[in-house]
């Protein structure tokens, strides 16, 4: 699979439950822009057949190499980022995993049930990255219990492996130089943005500014046949800056990411 095939299949899958991403993408194209992706992100459970460590070889199979590692202590997450070895225009990939053993025992028990259902050989090819949930649909009760301790865990229980967001590269837009202008356009068009820590995460001095929509809301049928509106996925916007050494910053920032995670809070 080429990275280009990988990202088109991923986008198809992502926009089915994230219609706002398709509409915003179209909005930019209608304004004469060509939208390039800065990065995409995935979430997973550690100590499972789909742990970060088990998934990584599939990113390597499409030419990606890890180049940074991150820890989010209060959210019980760790993450790594990947870039394409030869094609600098290929989107970067941010892969995080939940440190399940750090959650209270009753959450571990719920998640343990899901993990036990994942085939030990679930990861065979890169298309595992849009396989969704590899366990039976959770009950609404389980979802709410998980959400009390980890919004990430609740989200992952219902959405599974799929692109959690795509990210518009503001650097590649022609008519929008600043992230503030992009945010103003989105607000004018009626989109709800993530306001945790302010609309813009990061500063030019930290070389990465990011903003994101709040995730789309979809109607979800839980096991036991109860239905509830829950967050699906969101769209992000990133502007990178050149460092004093003349090189464009191409990694991620824990302080920004920590707030971007909240885009799927309910
Ligand atoms: C990832 C949040 C971090 C970034 O660009 O810093 C992130 C997530 O919500 O799964 O995407
Ligand atoms: Ni992101």
Structural class by sheet pairing and helices: alpha+beta
| Count of DSSP H/I helices | 8
List the ligand species: 2-oxoadipic acid, nickel (II) ion
The main β sheet shows up as: 7 strands, mixed
Extract low-pLDDT stretches.
none
How many domains comprise the coordinates?
A: 1
How does the overall form come out from the CA principal axes? globular
Residue-averaged pLDDT = 98
Helix content: 25-40%
CATH class: Alpha Beta
Distance between the termini: 35 Å
| Count of beta strands | 9
- Architecture in CATH? Roll
CATH third-tier fold name: 2,3-Dihydroxybiphenyl 1,2-Dioxygenase, domain 1
Approximately what portion of the residues adopt beta-strand conformation?
A: 15-25%
The succession of helices and strands, N to C, reads HHEHEEEHHHEHEEEEH
- Radius of gyration over alpha carbons? 18 Å
Strand order of the largest sheet: 2-3-4-1-5-9-6
Describe this structure in words.
With 266 residues, the chain is α+β, with helices and mostly antiparallel strands. It has a single domain, classed as 2,3-Dihydroxybiphenyl 1,2-Dioxygenase, domain 1 (Roll), CATH 3.10.180. The chain is 32% helix and 23% strand. It has eight helices and nine strands. The protein has helices at 3-17, 19-30, 52-61, 105-117, 140-149, 151-159, 179-188, 254-260; strands at 37-45, 64-72, 77-84, 92-98, 165-169, 208-212, 217-221, 227-231, 234-240. A hairpin with a 4-residue loop joins β2 and β3. α1 (3-17) packs across α2 and α5 runs antiparallel to α6. The mean pLDDT is 98. The protein binds 2-oxoadipic acid and nickel (II) ion (NI). 2-oxoadipic acid binds at residues 41, 43, 94, 96, 164, 210, 236, 252, 256-257, 260-261. Its EC number is 1.13.11.93. Belongs to the 2-oxoadipate dioxygenase/decarboxylase family. Keywords: Dioxygenase, Iron, Oxidoreductase.
């Amino acid at each position: 699979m080429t990275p280009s095939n990988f990202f088109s299949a991923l986008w198809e899958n992502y926009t089915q439950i994230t219609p706002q991403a398709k509409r915003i993408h179209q909005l930019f194209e209608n304004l004469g822009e060509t939208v390039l992706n800065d990065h995409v992100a995935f979430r997973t459970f550690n100590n499972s057949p789909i742990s970060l460590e088990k998934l990584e070889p599939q990113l390597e199979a499409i030419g990606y190499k890890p180049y940074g590692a991150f820890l989010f202590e209060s959210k019980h997450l760790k993450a790594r980022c990947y870039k394409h070895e030869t094609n600098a225009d290929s989107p970067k990939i941010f892969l995080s995993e939940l440190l399940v053993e750090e959650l209270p025992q009753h959450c571990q028990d719920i998640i343990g049930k899901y993990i036990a259902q994942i085939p030990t050989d679930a990861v065979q090819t890169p298309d595992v990255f849009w396989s969704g949930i590899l366990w039976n649909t959770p009950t609404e009760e389980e979802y709410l219990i998980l959400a009390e301790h980890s919004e990430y865990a609740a989200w992952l229980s219902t959405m599974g492996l799929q692109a959690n967001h795509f990210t518009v590269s503001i650097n590649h837009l022609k008519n929008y130089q600043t992230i503030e202008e992009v945010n103003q356009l989105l607000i004018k068009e009626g989109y709800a943005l993530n306001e945790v820590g302010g609309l813009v995460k990061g500063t030019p001095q930290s070389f990465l500014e990011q903003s994101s929509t709040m995730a789309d809301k979809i109607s979800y049928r839980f096991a036991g046949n109860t239905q509830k509106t829950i967050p699906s996925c969101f769209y992000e916007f990133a502007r990178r800056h050149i460092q004093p050494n003349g090189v464009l910053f191409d990694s991620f920032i824990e302080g920004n990411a920590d707030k971007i995670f909240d885009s799927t809070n309910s």
